[in-house]
């Protein structure tokens, strides 16, 4: 089976499609997406050897490409080549794009017509079209931070990892612009390969300026406004940062040293202080004004301000074009120069720090090699950064948090480890069963089809699973694994971070430009430079161990996690593929403090008190010691800072009732990596640069936390375990249990959950009327 699929969207291209398909087939299987053609395009494509997918009605190029991407993902190909069916792309040049794609499997490769190798007479791009390409290209380069001359080219190679990570939402000709910008947002490498520019003067373009041009312009306008708002916020934060306590202390120390010789002469001392302040102010302004980022902003500001003039010139172009002079072309060449902008973007590409006494050994130091740290290292290395990954324990090692969520699967696919996880034979999890002993009611939630995530996930033994992720990260060309290695302390400065690392060979200093705290519940940054705040009411203790054997349910129920609630707390029951079972109890800390006997005796007594669990474990011997974790629910402050971000449990840890830990770790690592890669492109590492990331993570945790707090309320439990297919309530609840509410909660899910919680409030009122308890068991 080929690892490449060539996708050609077409509409009424009968004159050219046969020749295009015949030449493209030399380089891989061809899939033609017929967008409702009214001629014999489909028949000619099929006759030439292509597989044809007919859409029936014209839906636009964007929809056709989406269908092609979906088919490519279904087939499991490594990359997708796209080119037009109208003859404006040379199929013979496909190998040149594929060569770059094979060398960089995660790169988006663009065939650039504006740096073409040759121009065939009579087949060149018209001046008006060329001007439009350059204007769009200027703004897209500025928005993406990547210098690509031909941003509108449809001749591309999309890596499977990008198609798995990004589901395009736009249609028409906007899709290709959206994919390029979203690829840059995620730190995906973008490579431009010169191709032959071809334009047939006697053939009408499918691009409709009024409709398609307006759509692309509107999309870009929205992105431009957002970018300027972010720049304004960053500028204000930069000004405020000048007066931060750390910088003030440093400048005051320098100022006092500078003025010290004049202490005996007050006028001279005041004059020296004034001269020092003026000098530092001028230096700061000059440094900011001359920076590449500031030069790029000035170019973008001029281009933005000139856009109304450009539109006026476009409308009156024929009247103004006299004597061979083209004012439109002159404006574009002068104000929308991609070459000038590229010179400001050059320093934004990820690269090692320059020479000097504090030159960095690495671009990023990742503290912790669990799922969050391994994922961050992989994503950052793919973006071209040099990463040091420090893990203090040898792997494999025992760890709980063994039940994944369906939303984990797309992240694992984007990481490139999903095949390895499948090959390990982990037990498939199709849902979750909840049972309340006091109410004597239970319900099994099955994950649903037709979602952005699959209807399954896995129960994993963390020793094996974490090693898969760590080995995959260590195999990346730009990753250096330090294991076992303990990061003892760190010191931040304006240029980066210096870490003291303890290894078997001794203690040494490691210098990096940025730090990712993926240390898990140790919360490295928070315990040394911030605060770790317990979440009120969730002061729990967990006792857990592994058993050999244990009951297995038939069919799809075999791999499902089972939650047993009873008066002192609740148990998890997670079956594994090797016949062992993870069993843990979450209970209030005061129950542990008031126990008689040791923790093992308490653990065994709790099992006997939970009838459903005791029955499931009948005859199953415990094969590990009883482990414990206390006060595990917390939030850390800060989660981001100057030259650092936290991911996973280093940000917060919630009650494990809904198995969110591994998903939050890997997903936050992916989001953080995208922001870090953008920060390296922009050479901006201040805390405000990562405020959006922190907000996304905090907001994403809210649905889980809302369910956790209500889980201990009998009014909630009664509704939760007796769900009704009303107003999409079960679908909404199952979506949260699958992890689907973290990144983006769709309006339908949001409304269905509000209906669900309204029913919970009504049930609380009904229970009060009936004299039943409504007191939350939150204080377990």
Describe the protein in words.
The protein is α/β, with parallel strands linked by helices and 780 residues long. It has five domains: 4-222, Spore Coat Polysaccharide Biosynthesis Protein SpsA, Chain A (Alpha-Beta Complex), CATH 3.90.550; 228-348, no CATH class; 350-424 and 460-534 and 635-698, FAD/NAD(P)-binding domain (3-Layer(bba) Sandwich); 430-456 and 540-630, D-Amino Acid Oxidase, Chain A, domain 2 (2-Layer Sandwich); 713-779, no CATH class. Strands 8, 9, 14, 15, 16, 17, 25 and 26 form an eight-stranded mixed β-sheet that branches. Strands 3-2-1-4-6-5-7 form a seven-stranded mixed β-sheet, sandwiched between helices. A seven-stranded mixed β-sheet has the order 12-11-20-21-22-19-23, sandwiched between helices. α11 (292-315) packs antiparallel against α14 (338-345) and α25 crosses α27 (747-769). The radius of gyration is 30 Å and the shape is globular.
In the CATH hierarchy, what is the architecture of the largest domain at level 2? Alpha-Beta Complex
> How many E strands?
27
Strand content: 15-25%
Give the termini distance in whole angstroms.
56 Å
- CATH topology assignment of the largest domain: Spore Coat Polysaccharide Biosynthesis Protein SpsA, Chain A
Q: How would you characterize the largest beta sheet?
A: 8 strands, mixed
Annotated CATH homologous superfamily of the largest domain: Spore Coat Polysaccharide Biosynthesis Protein SpsA, Chain A
Molecular shape: globular
Quick one: CATH class of the largest domain? Alpha Beta
Which percent bin holds the helix content?
40-55%
